[in-house]
Amino acid sequence: xxxxxxxxxxxxxxxxxxxxxxxxxxxxxxxxxxxxxxxxxxxxxxxxxxxxxxxxxxxxxxxxxxxxxxxxxxxxxxxxxxxxxxxxxxxxxxxxxxxxxxxxxxxxxxxxxxxxxxxxxxxxxxxxxxxxxxxxxxxxxxxxxxxxxxxxxxxxxxxxxxxxxxxxxxxxxxxxxxxxxxxxxxxxxxxxxxxxx
Length: 197
Ligand SMILES: [Zn+2]
Known about the structure:
The protein is mainly α. The protein has helices at residues 2-23, 28-35, 39-49, 70-73, 76-91, 112-128, 136-147, 177-187, and strands at residues 95-97, 103-105, 152-156, 163-167. Strand 1 and strand 2 (103-105) form a beta hairpin.
């Protein structure tokens, strides 16, 4: 009986995560990686709970996750939001940052708990940035990219000491996006800097 209960609880947790991720328009492949459910079951969940139930504003995404890192560093607004996400990954114990700013992944491979933690980080990010520039799949990509310590890394701001997401191949002015946005606004008051374009 106990075994059946455990299996039921585990399956329920997989389904809950799949629904949570579908709601965030995660790709089937990403959902499969975390839940272990087959593409067919994910398709059926989407059809039952979203497509056929009248919830039409959730789209099903196919194919691979976006890969480029330029999205995270294209301007200070994007950089600031990517930095918020990295802070939330750390708060959710998905990542750890060493004293030398090296980023370490705390999870050996995606599983259900990992998926829920990524969802939680993404949901908090949406609360902090109502004009979100990064989708769930970009969030997923950022979590991977930053832990490779390759094209993206954490730099330190000369003025306020904060860490921020930076492009390894770009010139680093040692100014975090928050300080940059602030100085831009001081120079040109009234002009909304770095729009989401
Ligand atoms: Zn700063």
